[in-house]
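Supplementary notes (optional reading)

For those who missed the lab, this is the record we used. Protein: Phytase-like domain-containing protein. Length: 284 residues.
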Amino acid sequence: MPPGVRFAGGWSLTSPHAEFGGLSGIEILPDGRLLTVSDVGAFIWIGMANGAPDGTGEISYMKGPNGQILRGKRDGDSEGLALADGLAFVSFERRHRVAAFDLETCGASARAAPFTELPSELSGIRIKENSGAEALSAGKVMIAGYEQLIDGYSPLVSVSKGGSSTELLAPAKRDYNGPLVGMTNTIMLGDAATAGSVVYSLRRSYNPVFGNRLTVEAAYEDAGGASRRALFELKPPMNVDNFEGISAETLNDGTHRLWLVSDNNFSDQQRTLLFAFDLIGEAH
C-alpha cells in the first residue's frame, strides 16, 4: 500500500443461504452494521462488532410499490446504494431507475417508492441492460454512475431531488482506470467555514489473463474548484476479486475508513470479499 493507506482488515463472507451473494452497493448504518444490496433484488445486513463482521446477518427481498417482491432480473437487478435523509436509495439496471426504501421505519416491509427513471440512452447511445447505474452517491444532489463506456468514459448522471430531471455531467479525464462501479456519499472536509468535500470511487477493469484490477480514486471539491486523483490499486498477485461496492466513514480520529465488497456472481470460482482500508493524514 502507498504511504497513508493502511489495510485495516479483510474477510471472506459465506452463508448457507442459497441467495447470499451478488453484493454490489454497500453502506454503513448508524448502528454500525453494514447494509448491502444483492443483484437478486435483496437487502443484506451484515452484523459488525469492533470493526469486524460478527458472523450474523439478515436478508430481505425488496418489495415494489404494490408490496409484491421484485422478481427476476428485469425488476430486481439492484446495484448502487446510498443512504440519505433516513432512506435507502437503490439504483437498478435493466429497468434503469432509482427507488427509495424507508428501512428505518418499515424494516423488511419497506416498499419501493419510485424516485426517478434513469436515462436508457446517453449521447445517442443505448445503455446495455447490464451496464447501467452501478454506482450511486448522495450529496447536494444524487449522482448515478454508469458502468457503460461512452466515448471512452463512464458517464455520471445528476438526478434532481424531486426526481424530475437528469443531466449528463462533464466527462472525467480519459485516465479513468476502468469503468466506474462504485461511489461513496459525499464526505465534508474541514470546518463549516472552509469545508471542501470528497467522494471516493471504485473503478474496475478485467481481462482473463491478468484478472481484476481495481483503482480507488478521490474526487475533491472546494472553493478553488475540483480535482481528482488515484489513491491506490488492487491487482494480482494481491488477493482480489470482482469488487463493486465502496462506502466510507469518518472514524473518531478523523481517519477515513473505506469498505469494499465484491460480487461473487453466485459462482463457485469467486468469493464475497469484504475489505477495509484506512486513509491517514494527507491520504484523504
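If you only remember one thing from this example: DSSP finds two helices and 23 strands in the chain.
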